Amino acid sequence: MKQELRAFSSVDKTEDPEVFVRFLDAINQFDMVQTLKRHTLDAMQIQPGHHILDVGCGLGDTIRMAAELVGPSGRAVGIDQSETMLAEARKRSQSSAIPIEFKHCNAQSLDFPDNTFDGCRADRVLLYVDDPRVVLSEMARVTKPGGRVVNFEPDWQTTVVDALNKSLTRRITDFWCDSLPNAWIGRQLSRLQKDVGLVDATVFGLTLTLPTYKLFNDLFMVEATVASAVQNGAITTDEAEEWLGSLKDSDRAGQFFFGNTGFIVSGRKPK
């Protein structure tokens, strides 16, 4: 993959938007990702007949799950700013027994009246937006009093890679963290939800681990990020080759390890 992870903020403008479709398909295969989707839906306390909004719906996997929960008397809506993602979501949802609405919409200005939905969720969206507080405020605005706003976000500073050169690994993971728009969003979620008026927050942590270098690079476009670190002077070409080479050696020995922790935060809109 040529793009870096941060390009998720402008999928349709990238050289190959389908890269990100393939990325989501790949990462959605992990048990941890399916677990986080179920946990976010559980945290919304969805009932038949509820109206549910998925902000940054991607390929529509989670809003299809929500549609099954709200049933024919409910409403399931997915919004995304990427037409590539929406087109794929619509195609994959054609056979859904429950109609699902997909809309092109910017998360920082949701095109819905106040108090429209019984629950609202976003998953790995605030990591990429210009102002996470504005998005959370919009999610709270369109949620009915008593409804829940649920977010999952990784905290990129929790990234761990088992590599022999500790100082070089720190420089690379720090560069990676700093290259993302809101890399600390996981640890900030609880505070930001309170800032926009949500109450009764619950927090649940989940850690993704990867056992191979190929998965690490395929999912997180690591080699592109390391190349960017060289271009920006954070590391040298020799250091990049040393670090990537050491990870490949670990992989061949069956000793590769990567982990990253994210947080599900669920807040309630006061009545």
Key terms:
271 residues; alpha/beta; Rossmann fold; 42% helix
Overview of this structure, please?
With 271 residues, the chain is α/β, with parallel strands linked by helices. The protein has a single domain (5-268), classed as Rossmann fold, CATH 3.40.50. The protein has ten helices and eight strands. It has helices at 18-27, 31-43, 61-70, 83-92, 132-142, 166-179, 185-195, 213-220, 222-231, 237-252; strands at residues 51-55, 75-80, 100-104, 117-123, 143-154, 160-161, 199-210, 258-268. Strands 1, 2, 3, 4, 5, 6, 7 and 8 form an eight-stranded mixed β-sheet that branches. It is globular and about 60 Å long. The termini are far apart.
List the helices and strands and how they pair.
Layout: H1 18-27, H2 31-43, E1 51-55, H3 61-70, E2 75-80, H4 83-92, E3 100-104, E4 117-123, H5 132-142, E5 143-154, E6 160-161, H6 166-179, H7 185-195, E7 199-210, H8 213-220, H9 222-231, H10 237-252, E8 258-268
Parallel strand pairs: 1-2, 1-4, 2-3, 4-5
Antiparallel strand pairs: 5-8, 6-8, 7-8
